[in-house]
Every structure is written in C-alpha cells, then in structure tokens.
Design brief:
Chain lengths: 479, 479
C-alpha cells in the first residue's frame, strides 16, 4: 500500500563499513536530517529528546554546584574577538560573518559565536568590582557555529548544540578546583548515565583550547577503537581577565585580575553513544537517557482485553517514573519490533491474549536480545531492575572494549604497528616536545589524546626522540 | 568602604517618567545588560531564571498536548526564504545576512533566522509522505534575529529568545483547533502563572503575521495603559505547504497539501511582567515564576541560634517545594530589604533573636508591604497560602486596570479624545476596511489591537467611514 509508512529497511553491516553503518543509524533511527546548507543538520524529535535528557542531568548538576544559566548575544564584533591573541588565532579561520543588517552594510562585521569567552569577559568587565561579586558561575545552553570544511552527523557540524560554562574566581586555586569539578561532572554523565567509560586527562599544549593555560578532557573509545573527545574543561589563568580589563578590589583593597574557566559538552556526545553501543540492528540506547525506556507492543490487539491491559500497564509503568510508549497503531507487531530495535529502545514489552490469561508478559532486552516471561505482578520493579542491568551490561562491554584496546609501545615503530594492526589507544612515555608530537602524527597517523590524570610516574625515554621522559601519554586516531 | 557591593540606589518615579522607570528596573534588578552590539542584550542570571520558569510551564503544556522539541539550523539560504512571497516581503527587510564563512565568500548568502517557517517546511517536504506521518507537532526553543532600528530591553531586541511551535495537519479543521489550543495555553500562562489578564482576539489583515491566513493574539494592558501583544498563534491554511511542495497520500490515496500552524511567545513577556506589576520600589514578581519566592533575612545574625534557625527554616520551606534564598551575607538587614524589594521577591521572612524566643517570624508581602507575625509552626503552609494570595491580588489589580481602561467610542473624534486624555483600549465597531484602520492610526495614533474573540454582534456604523459595520475591534497604543 503506497500510503503505508515505510518499513525500516536493513542498514549497512558495521564491520563491513563502519562509516556508512553510522550514517544509516543516524538517519534510520530518525535522529537527524540533512538540510540544504552544507554542514548544518536538523535535530529531529527523537534525537533532540536524547539531548534533552542529557541537558536535564547536566543542568541539575550545574545548579547543584551553584551555577546559573544566562543568555549571551550570538553575534560578536570582530574587535572583541581580537582582544585575546591566541583565542582569535584559533577561531577566526572558522568564523561565519554577518556583514549586512537589513539592506545596510554593517560598519563592523560580526561573527556568529564559535564560543563565547569574549562576550562573557566583556560583560564581566562591566559588572565586576569587588571580591563580593565573585565567584561568578555561569552557563549557557545554545548553538555555536564553526565553518569547517567537512561534516558528519553529530560529530562535526557547522552549527552544533552545546552548553558552555564560564566562571570567574578570586584565586587560581579556586579556578583550578572548578575546572576539575566540571570535568568530573562530565565523566559522571558519561559513566553513570551514558554507560561510556572515560579516560580523564590533560591535553598537550598543541591540542589545548585556544587561549587556555590548561585543557582537561575526557576521551572515550568507540566500537571501531577510534577516540572521541567527549567533553573539555579549560583553566585560563588570568590572561583573559587582563586582556579584557576585568579587575576586582580584594579584601585588602588591592585591584586584582581574577581567574577564569570555561567548559563545554556538545551534541557530538550523541555520536559517541551511537558508536559505543550500536549494533547491526541499529541504535542501542543507554536506559537512563533513552526517550522511550519501555515500548509496549500489543500482540493480536484486536482481541478482547489486550489493548485495555496494555493501556493499564503503560499507566502503571509511567506512574513508577518510567518513560513508556504504547504503540497501538495498526502496523504489524513484526514491523514494530524492527522499528523500536532500530531506535534502540532498551526494553520491549509484548502482551497478547495468552499472556493475559497467565497474568504475564514478555520482556525483550535490546542489548542482548534476551527474552523472558515475567509476571504482571510487580512489573514496575522488574522493568526498572532490567533497565539497571542493561546499563551495567552496556558499561561493562564498553569498559572491556576500552581496556582491551590500550596498548603500550616503547618505540615509534611499535606504536605505528599497533595503530595499523589493532587500532585503539597507544600508551607511551613522552618528553613533552611538540616536535615528537608532530612526528607521531606524521609517522603513525595518531594525535595525542591526553596525558592521563593518573600518571604511573615511570622514568624512561621518549620513544620518538630517545630523550629522558617521565610523562605518560595516550595516542590515538580520533573523530 | 570601596570594596562593598554597591547598594541599590533609587529609581526614577514611574509616574514621572515611565520609560526611564522601566529601564531602571531592568538594570537595577539585574535582569539584563547592554552589550557593545546595538540592540543585543545579555539576559543575566536573575532575568534568565524568570524565563526558565516560563519555559518549564510552557514546555510541560506543549508536551502534554503531544508536541516534541527539535532544533533547526539558525541559517536560512536566501532562496529558501523567498519561496513564500508574503513571508519574505515581511521579513527580508529586517534580516541579518551571513556572507562569509572563514575567509571565503559564500555562493549564496544566508539569513540568520528571523523565524523558521521556511526551514520547517523544507524539512517536512522531505519526510512527509502519508497520512500516517501526520500530524507533526513540533516546537523549538531558540533565539531569532530581527534587525530593527530601535531597541528597548525585553520589548525590542535585535536578538531575542522565544519558542516557535510549528505543526502540520491533514485537515483545516484540525489545524484551526491547534491554533486556538495554543493561544489558550498562552492565555493560561499569562492569567494563571503571570497574573496578567488578557484580551484574546484576531489580528486584522494588516497586523497579521507575514504569510498567515489568520493570526490570533493575546493583548495585555500595561500600567501606563499601553498595549503589549504578548503571544500569537497563526493559521497558515495550506499556502506554505503548496509553496514548499509538501503533500501526503490521504486514506483514499489522494495526494493532498496539509495545513500548517505556527505560534510563538518570546522574552518580551518579561517586559510585560515588569510593566504590569512593578512599582516605585522596583520589580514585583508574580510568585509562580519568581526565581526566589521567599527570601530569608536574619536579623542580628551574630546572635546565638539565629543563623541555625534560618538555615533550618530554609530547608523546611525548600522541602515543601518553595524556591527560597537565605541571605546570610554580611550586608545589613536594611541593605537586604532594599535589594530584594528591587528584585521583586514576593515574600520576605525576617527572623531575629526575639522572634526565636516566641517561635515566630515576620512575613512581609512585596506587593502590599503588609507585615505579619506568624508562628514557625506550619510556616510552609502559611507561606504557600500567602504566595497564592499575592498571585490573586496581583491579578485582581491588573484586571481592574484592564477593565477600567476599556472605553467605547462612536466617532473618530471621540476615539482620539479618549486616547489623548485617558489612554487604554478604545472599543469601536469597524467596517473591516484597511483605509479606516490607517486613518485611525493617522488621526488618533492608535493601531488595531484585535477583533476580540468574544464579539457582542452589534449592528451599527464604522465610526471612521460611516458605512455599516458589525465587527467589534480594540484600538490602542502598543509597545
């Protein structure tokens, strides 16, 4: 029938072509759509709902730690962007520029924000006077533009959604503590909500944020063993404050430049979820951010009592705080099974006339496919406990993938061989020189991922230049 | 002391200079700040928190009525904007244009969205095929740009925050029902949450949204008797669908153009809150969206037991679901009283050593200044009930202001005299001709506000041209 909603069709095999598999999942799970502007995407309801659940978690954590949301202008005058030298060098090449307002050419062109350090600092230079005004703990949820040449759904957009936190502190110590606290909140999100284990570390000078003194990162490993930088937190020292003329009278009446941080996590994390947990039947969503945690599929729904029982069950599960969808459309159960598998719904509940007689239903796990008959008695607890099991199983599987694919190398050749034959993260010592970092990229195709916060403190030599080295570093191919 | 946080200073008298009073409140209550780009503002934490409470209410109502959030690109190709003739004529003159990405000039310039009908329609033209795909009930929270010549905090920004709902329906009837449903949700927000009575009506053809067949509006009356258009809901017919080639196979396999609606409410409503409820001591916030509903001010806080009791009270009130701030800073109680009056906090709770002895505290209403001694026993219920009283009192006062300032006129001269001497809304009959609408503007300085949904169905003559008329219309001077 031509008016039938199109059935979910097969997707590319992930082991045959991971890139195409990824795109297929993004499109067929209805997460995203392309637009007529290259590199700009539409976040469709199902994709956006995942982001909303991530937002809800982070926003709560941000507020519990004293942060307030604000909204800054999306346009930044070119002169403002230029106030901090390293920052403008990093971002100007990928700015989109507004040059006309209505029919008039602007006197100064305005950049659509690629990030908002400059506008926060400009504002703070007006409102900060005394130690009583500090700390300022701000966050904003918005989209930013970066005019990149290539694009991929979630991973690289010209416009993407994110949150950017910006804070200002009286002391360096307090600012560093803040930077680390926010990294830990990102790590908590990944591990306890998204079932994605992380490596916490520091970026090298080459890889740190433009204008930052220090960039903290969490790095995740995808199913194909490539790295995804999933969230970053920056300590700026007081360089921006000085560039923007922000100063406060301290308790001794001394005019002092405060210390700044910023930290951001974007919708690229959705790409991470897909590439960490997905399989050949489509998306697999971690239960704690799944827009639908349990889908109820009636079997032989025209039979007496089936739909009524399904509606009652849906109400019961919702009342217990679960996100539930009852699909009572006239599509076949088989169509529905495939549809919600593609969409990665963690649990499917099937209920037909025979189940009803036995006061039971069928629960099917999306991750393992495991099917169990369970009593309708206490179904809320059974479902909740299975959702927790699924979270734990997804985390354990991803953790194993991470641990199994961190290799130690003692020479550049060895690092190169690991990268070519196995992929994953390669752990080495490093002398700290940019030259060696560039050589690793050139010879082995890997960038530095991070200097892990947990340093084993080994003394040895840099496998690239042979000079004494004591820093442990992770290398990898990254998205 | 130069390091002391600056005390709240007096604001302009609202009866002497309402415009300056308004700006003073926006700045001194720390709702907003100016930026280096004309017409673009910073929503500061306190102002943004009010918006977040409005968002929470609306988002819940939108979801309860089946809507899902999405995110569309902020940039619209010029060719896409031009697809619907009336729409582009209305918006092109105030678009901001991106012409360069990085160092390259774009092949086609991109407009920063002034509104998103065109991108929603473009997307829908790809995904809509069958009646099974309808209705589509979408909303997005975002900011939009309109390059206007003049600007005022909240009321007229070049960039403002809003939500824009966009829906697509199989039938005209369903789309009209949706348009009216969303107007009613806006009216509920105003009346039951913001304590702002509304007049619901239809815009004239001259005043309707560019490209719409019909625009519904809610109009509020400010303290100075001017009108504020506070939310609008548009029925588009199937004109956009045809312009964008959106069609679906209906149940009879006929290819059909669906019907569209859109509806929006913006941060200009914050300007409405200020101008409806504010007074000469500053902002007065309706309790249901106040970021702080109860501020606790300790008196003689160095005395034994005072701060402990205040902390306990704060915990108790928070546990009861109230938004509470305990200000235990070292500012004087007098400083704090003025600060939270300026910020419009509905209830102040004072507690000192003597109160503690008597197991009581002092509650002071921001709206009336009324001060009562109440027992600490059951303080949650006392506070909640007072907050409800404040809501009702604010609504009743605003309702009286509205009702007292709607005047009936039977001639253009009479309308003009009312506008000059009294202000408010002038109610007349109207023949429906644009010419008369323009004449009212020219002669009496009033625009049409709306044709109220509740029409008294009087037959008479148009006071402007003298021809037969049966439509009742409201005129006014609007923000």
């Amino acid at each position: 029938m031509s008016t039938e909603k199109k059935a979910v069709t097969a997707i590319t095999d992930m082991d045959a072509d991971f890139t195409q598999w990824y795109t297929d999942v993004c499109i067929k799970a209805e997460l995203i759509d392309y637009t007529s502007v290259k590199g700009m995407f539409i976040y469709r309801p199902y994709g956006y709902a995942i982001w909303e659940n991530i937002q809800a978690y982070l926003d709560k954590r941000f507020k519990e730690t004293g942060h307030a949301n604000v909204a800054m202008p999306m346009l930044i005058p070119e002169s403002l962007l230029q106030k901090e030298k390293d920052h403008v060098e990093g971002f100007a090449p990928e700015c989109a520029w507004v040059t006309h307002g209505g029919s008039e050419e602007l006197e100064e062109r305005l950049c659509v924000r690629p990030t908002s350090e400059t506008v926060f600092c400009d504002h703070w230079s007006h409102i900060v006077h005394s130690w009583r005004d500090l700390p300022l703990l701000y966050n904003q949820w918005c989209s930013v533009l970066r005019w990149e040449k290539t694009s991929r759904p979630f991973l690289r957009h010209r416009e993407f959604l994110w949150q950017e936190g910006h804070t200002l502190h009286a002391t360096e110590e307090e600012a560093v503590t803040e930077t680390e606290q926010m990294l830990n909140i990102y790590a908590d999100l990944c591990e306890t909500v998204l079932a994605m284990p992380v490596v916490k570390g520091l970026k090298t000078d080459k890889e740190k944020f433009a204008g930052a003194e220090r960039t903290y990162t969490i790095e995740c490993m995808m199913h194909d063993k490539k790295a995804l930088q999933s969230g970053t937190s920056h300590f700026f020292g007081n360089g921006f404050a000085k560039a923007f003329g922000i100063a406060f009278s301290d308790k001794n009446n001394q005019l002092t430049a405060p210390f700044e941080t910023s930290w951001g996590l974007s919708t690229r994390i959705l790409g991470g979820i897909i590439m960490t947990h997905g399989d050949n039947r489509g998306l697999v969503l971690p239960p704690r951010i799944a827009p639908i945690q349990v889908v109820i599929v009636p079997v032989a729904q025209h039979k007496a009592g089936v739909l009524e029982a399904c509606h009652q069950l849906a109400g019961q599960l919702k009342a217990a705080g679960l996100r539930v969808k009852l699909d009572d459309s006239d599509q076949s159960p088989g169509w529905k099974f495939a549809e919600y598998e593609m969409k990665g719904v963690p649990l499917r509940l099937e209920l037909g006339p025979k189940d009803l007689e036995k006061n039971q239903c069928v629960l099917v796990r999306r991750d393992s496919g495991e099917k169990t008959f369970v009593s309708l008695e206490g179904i809320e607890k059974t479902a909740q406990s299975l959702l927790d099991d699924i979270h734990n199983a997804l985390f354990a599987k991803a953790q194993k993938n991470l641990e199994d694919n961190i290799y130690t190398a003692e020479s550049l050749e060895e690092a190169k061989a690991i990268q070519e034959q196995k992929g994953g993260f390669v752990k080495t010592l490093w002398c700290g020189e940019l030259e060696c970092e560039l050589k690793m990229k050139e010879e082995a195709g890997m960038t530095s991922r991070c200097l892990p916060l947990e340093q084993p403190h080994i003394l040895g030599v840099c496998p690239i230049c042979g000079k004494p080295a004591h820093k442990t570093i992770y290398w990898g191919v990254a998205y």
